[in-house]
Amino acid sequence: MAKIVIQGGCPLEGTVRVSGAKNAVLPILAASLLAEHGVSQIEEVPHLLDVENMANTVAALGAKIDWKGTTVRVDARSLYSVTPPAELVRRMRASFVVAGPLLARFGEAMIALPGGCNIGPRPVDLHIKGLEALGATSVVENGFVHLRAPRGGLHGARIYLDVPSVGATQNIMMAATLAKGQTIIENAAKEPENVDLANYLNAMGARVRGAGTDIIRIDGVDTLSGATHAVIPDRIEAGTFLVAAALIGRGVYVENALSHHLMSLIAKLEEAGATIEDRVDGIKVWPCPSGRMRPLDVKTHYYPSYPTDMQAQIVAALTVAQGTSMVTETVFENRFMHVAELQRMGANIHIEGRTAVIDGVARLSGARVTATDLRAGAALVIAGLIAEGETEVHGLHHLDRGYDNLVAKFKRLGAAIERFEDIGQSAKSVG
Ligand code: EPU
């Protein structure tokens, strides 16, 4: 089994460049299915398991995919299937966003229902309700949902989302691009990744207005064409480096990070004592002068509030703060699996309902820990960087889903970190 081994305590210094955003690339690849003409060129695509999965899903429907470095060309002119392979959809919940594009372009989609996942049940009821409001019918059978558009195609509708679901907003927005008339999504998700998706759709010829606010208006058009689009930087990858640098940096420049996507995190890091400087094409961060963060009260919520995807990393940081912190998770149930692993490293945390109460300790100590989901994995790497002694992080398939070259990037900043791929009995370092 692969593992990351970290000798804690090495200060981080220098520059790290953030890759394109995973959670923007995934729906953008799905949106490429809408292009009846031309070829799309997506730039700044990170090399991640989830992106590979989505590219394979789109390819399995008949699209031609061509990778060159961080650019992916997608030719979706002649698709031959409306049923993405169930094993790909079950492996990655985000594949469900191919439903909207398939339904809009072909009037039909047959998608495996994603199962539960490590961060809670995560249903897709709002996606289906939204598509039904556009005129689709849905039948659930043998673990699949079969969606069908009415004879005349989808039509515009006014849709209020009970919660501002990121994925449901994406699915409805994509389906509505080819529907007849106007669609209005109220209480839409405002995440930057959805704005990026809307910009890509508009470059393809769609008419989407208001993305980034809680009311999105989409005027349906007849056809869409491939377009060239550069994906926004990954704010969660950027945030992960900001947190590590605020703990153990000697001045780290997080290049390509966009501060206006990271306001809530930056405010919290400043409150904890770090110094953050917004520069033209990135963010520079220095740690708290006292060497330890001040305690924080953090509550996750939908954008622009503090992101749930940065919850595990801030919990790891606060384990060594000077006092008691509270971190409340309001977006997902069951997203505190990293707490048990951090406790193995000496963290003093207890869970009260949806809140982690963290009593800062002087130091963590290295241990063998296992990532239970993507962001939990990032939290354990941060914990390993600040802990005394050696930490082994297992469960790397989670990290590979969402961090492009994490080990190499931390290594370049001066961390004593290695990745080992197990080959039989001997472990081979891959840097
Ligand atoms: N929800 C419903 N019904 C639905 C859809 C969502 O009840 O039909 C609930 C969920 O159970 C959850 C809340 O609404 O409690 C928010 O879920 P949302 O749909 O917004 O999340 P998502 O689209 O499944 C995306 C990101 C997640 C990120 C969340 C919240 C992608 C591929 N995934 O998920 O990213 O945590 O938004 O910001 O964009 C990650 O990158 O590690 C990750 C988990």
Automatic annotation (TrEMBL):
The keyword Cytoplasm applies. UDP-N-acetyl-alpha-D-glucosamine binds at residues 93, 122-126, 309, 331. It is found in: Cytoplasm. SUPFAM superfamilies: EPT/RTPC-like. Keywords: Cell cycle, Cell division, Cell shape, Cell wall biogenesis/degradation, Cytoplasm, Peptidoglycan synthesis, Pyruvate, Transferase. Its main location: cytoplasm. It catalyses: phosphoenolpyruvate + UDP-N-acetyl-alpha-D-glucosamine = UDP-N-acetyl-3-O-(1-carboxyvinyl)-alpha-D-glucosamine + phosphate. GO terms for cellular component: cytoplasm. Gene3D superfamilies: Enolpyruvate transferase domain. One of its GO terms (molecular function) is UDP-N-acetylglucosamine 1-carboxyvinyltransferase activity. Its EC number is 2.5.1.7. Pathway: Cell wall biogenesis; peptidoglycan biosynthesis. The keyword Lyase does not apply. It is an enzyme of class 2 (transferase). GO terms for biological process: cell division; cell wall organization; peptidoglycan biosynthetic process; regulation of cell shape; UDP-N-acetylgalactosamine biosynthetic process. Cell wall formation. Adds enolpyruvyl to UDP-N-acetylglucosamine. HAMAP family: MurA. Belongs to the EPSP synthase family. MurA subfamily. This is UDP-N-acetylglucosamine 1-carboxyvinyltransferase. It comes from Alicyclobacillus hesperidum. The gene is murA.
